[in-house]
Amino acid sequence: MSSKTPTPHPDAAPPGSAPPQRAAEAADGSPNPGARPGLFRDASLSAVLAGFVAVVVSYSGPLVIVLAAASAGHLNTAQTSSWVWAISIGSGLTCIGLSLRTKMPVITAWSTPGAALLVTSLGAYSYAEAIGAFIVTGLVITLVGLTGVFGWLMRQVPTAVVSAMLAGILFSFGTGVFTSLKTAPLIAGSVLVGYLLAKRWLPRYAVLVALAAGVAASAVSSRLDIHLDRIELAKPVLTTPEFSIASLIGIAVPMILATLASQNAPGMAVLTASGYEPKDRLLIGSTGLVSTALAPFGSHAINLAAITAAICTGPESHRDPRRRYVAGVSCGAFYLLIGAFGSTLVVLFAGLPKELVAAVAGVALLGALAGGLTSAVKEEKDREAALITFLATASGVTLFGIGSAFWGLLFGVLAHFILTRRRRTTTEPAK
């Protein structure tokens, strides 16, 4: 299945194809002159920028929840810095390693719903008990991934439902461009106008121009609040885990469910909807293993990303889907750079106006949003189920600690089953 813009570039892979990589050799075994096995040969400014924008979005939004959880759990400065280091290094290593291995733009991040869960629950347990729960979470996710159970479940979901869920996830980011006009018209307006003008004459650099225009407008309006007193390397803090039934039930169980349903499921869907064929055992298993290894340093969960992944898997990253894996490598490199300095460099992103981040993310995701909507309504028989999926996902509803992406999938699959089964029954010839 694939996600495409209404007017795909002639160099892009054909609709419905899976474009993760070029064949290194021709059918007769001779070298394929069209193959591009080298990272530097495949590199492009647009792909590198896509990775950078994905990192900006991650540190300007989801990281705030992590810092709030650290405050709620009464963590000291060293523990908090180690936590930021662990999730950044984990995300960076998995982005780079998996993108190079699969030649797909595999974007990973820390579990946002998992961090939100910790805001309300971390204070009820000792930090050592939380670390123990993090380790168990990583081990269980690794097991679920390596056995293939998770991938099998995802493959049962209809294409239209997956695309509709992707569109639902991105919907609020698309509208964010325009809601930002209310509070920061100069900043959001500059981003939008810069994007449209560049899209007309410099389409490959549209997001770069939009970002530059937004930063310039932020500076003119005195909205940049960046104060960097010092730069120092992070010092990881190793914590000996403690295991208790209470922390496993209160932290591990809900975090496992939230990470798999609200993060890994949409993350797999984004790759699939963009025309790739993700290997679930490799991706889920690898992120689970890295989560387990870094848990003693504070990492609560590393998983596939969805929103930031859509920035790197869409046409804004590169017109050729086979060269978008560079965006994943770029994203990972920026993660490692920032993670090496712990929470020191986070202030650079925290000082950006939220309207700037929202507007840039919105325009960067327009292509992916258009592709998701197009694929969702392509087949008439699937439109009702896709619409239900889109509405449920875009609603942002959270039930039992699990986000709307999972419920959109669930309701969409249920609607698809009911509607298609009814139609088959009513069209059977009378006996």
Provide an overview of this structure.
- This protein has helices at residues 39-42, 45-60, 62-72, 77-102, 112-121, 127-146, 149-155, 159-183, 185-201, 206-220, 245-273, 280-294, 307-313, 325-339, 346-350, 354-364, 366-376, 383-394, 404-426, and strands at residues 108-110, 302-304.
- With 431 residues, the protein is an all-alpha fold.
- It has a two-stranded antiparallel ribbon with strand order 1-2.
- Helix 8 (159-183) runs antiparallel to helix 16 (354-364), helix 8 (159-183) packs antiparallel against helix 17 (366-376) and helix 18 packs antiparallel against helix 19 (404-426).
- The longest helix has 29 residues, at 245-273.
- It is globular, with a radius of gyration of 21 Å.
Comma- or semicolon-separated keywords:
431 residues, globular, two-stranded antiparallel ribbon, 2 strands, 1% strand, disordered N terminus, mainly alpha
Helix-strand category: mainly alpha
Helix content: 55-70%
Distance between the termini: 37 Å
- How many β-strands, per DSSP? 2
Strand proportion, as a percent range, falls in under 5%
Radius of gyration: 21 Å
Shape: globular
Low-confidence spans: pLDDT under 50, at least 5 residues? 1-36
Count of helical regions: 19
| Average of per-residue pLDDT values | 82
The description of the largest β-sheet is:
2 strands, antiparallel
Strand order of the largest sheet: 1-2
The SSE order reads: HHHHEHHHHHHHHEHHHHHHH
